[in-house]
Write a structure and sequence with these properties.
mainly alpha; two-stranded antiparallel ribbon; 15 helices; 2 strands
Amino acid sequence: MENKVMDLTKGSIYKHIMTMAVPASIGYFFNTMYNFTDTFWAGRASTAALAALSLAFPIFIVVLAFGSGIGSGVTGIISNLFGKGEKDKVKEYFIQSVILGLFFSIITAIIMYIFMNPIFSLFHAEGELLRYAGEYTSIIIFGSPFFILNYIINGLLVAAGDTKSFSKFLITGFFINIVLDPLLMFGLTIRGVSLFPGMGIPGIALATVLVQIGGVLYLSGCVKKLDILKAVGKDSFTPKLSQMKEIIEQAAPATLNMIIMAAGVFVITYYISRFGESAIAAYGAAIRIEQIALIPTIGLNTALSSITGQNNGAGNVQRIRDAFLKTLMMGAVLFLLVMVPVVIFARPILTIFTTDTEVLRIGSLYLGIQLVAFYSYILLFQSGSVLQGMKKPGMILWSGIYRQVPAPLIFFNLFAYTFGLGIAGIWWGIVAVNWTAALVILFATMKLMSSKKSLTLQEEMG
């Protein structure tokens, strides 16, 4: 049975948003709960193990940057091809993106493996903490091609309006991980006989890689059901520089933005590490909770990206504007329904990961302050989706550069040290960084839609 490409240039915008956003949100919920599971077991091992996962997070982002960036590029290019009715070109662009993804994943893995320990040392990691971070990250790095392939394959599926397949993978992966994490971490002993020894923290990483391998197999099967990838032969895998160039031009801003985001997390982690191991552990646990609150907005982001791409290809600029405004209003509702309860129950939720009173205090403080920042993420995500779908992703990169490097350096020092707020100053610095960036990118997005709409009207009148 073949999957059908969804036509997002017609019909109810609300219906399209819900049809795509709900499965995507459910999938990302289970993906975040997947991370919850990893954090839970690491926290049960020790505070050092919990902090190790936080230290590994920036490198993890770098590994994912190329997959996420190329995946976004694939969605942008292919959704525009669907909108123009040029389905015959989809196969070529998709295969070229796979070649690019594998190439960059190998290069990235080598570089990150060489430099990971010096990076951890910058965060004052030593002894047990350094060992845990290195063991966990090594396995994640060598499994990176599978992470990247999943992003690229999903980029094609999302462009076709299919968010259900990736959601099914994320849900299934969550339940598999629940079993694999403790099994690989502690080993298996039956009636005093050890069937295989526990791996400790590396077991958590291996479980993640095994799930990603399964994801590649499953999502590849979903792609085969599309009628646009028929007659793929050896010649299809010959690198085509012109198409690769176009993919890179579309994917580079999103990829560089992710890499810069990793640099930003390095900056945040560096500043947090000045306040001790408890602060690092608190940040790692609290952002897991924050990620859950942001999940529905990621669903809106995924839906808007596909709707924008297809309608941009079809020249329906007003429909893009309508979809953008609708997702912003829906995001405001989600803010009230999700983030407020999360802040109220922050401390009880944090006790899932740790009973350390200092970690609980710092984590609760972070979540309380992030209530002010929450809607800025919605503005950033939705604006980015429109820019990506309209094939104008450059502003995403500039926004990312501002958010992740110069702005944190300015605001963190200002609030934490000049104003003397300590660790709370880092949290307030994050608020200032995101709101200033959100307002600028919102202005750029509205300006782009207005100018494109004017051009469209002129073409129709001409």
